[in-house]
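Fold this sequence, please.
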Amino acid sequence: MHIVIEFLQSIINFIEGSGTFGVVFACGLITIESIIPVLPLVAFITINFLVLGKILGFFISWIFTIIGCIMSYLIFKNGFGNKFDNLTENKQLLKKYKHMFKDISTGKLLLIIAMPFTPAFMVNIAAGLVKMDFKKYLIALIFGKIAMVYFWGFIGSSFIDSIKNPIILVKIIIIMLLTYLIYVVLNKIFKLN
């Protein structure tokens, strides 16, 4: 654990000491994490919140997480989508699940994306492989990532302490519900589905 804290502190020191390049580096970390899932997103979001402040750290983490997710989606849609179609052509069960995920409502997809423990890379890969409608995917991504980024930024490295404090979890649930309600209202106004 001590090594992890030292590693994170060295990244924080680098970003703080690098000026504009440090901000670009922070943006790159968030984007790359959305494509390469082995990197710790919670650490990068926390670093952005600590170094850039809660508002700028949130917006940078949110925007560049979305960019990374879109890149991942496009890589799998354009690079492997047709191969996946060929592989699942004769497998009825896979075809069934493929169509279920492809036809999922925007609201349900938004909730899946908004949950902090959902492996985002799997959602990106699945959406790309089934060639999910980009508009639906993008709308769910934009609104869903608000709650997810805020959750990880707010809780940061003290996740265990946050679980012990129910007020923090209540705030997160309220933010998730508000995100969903905003989506529902915008969906009725603009007929997004």
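The chain has one domain: 2-190. The chain has a mean pLDDT of 83.
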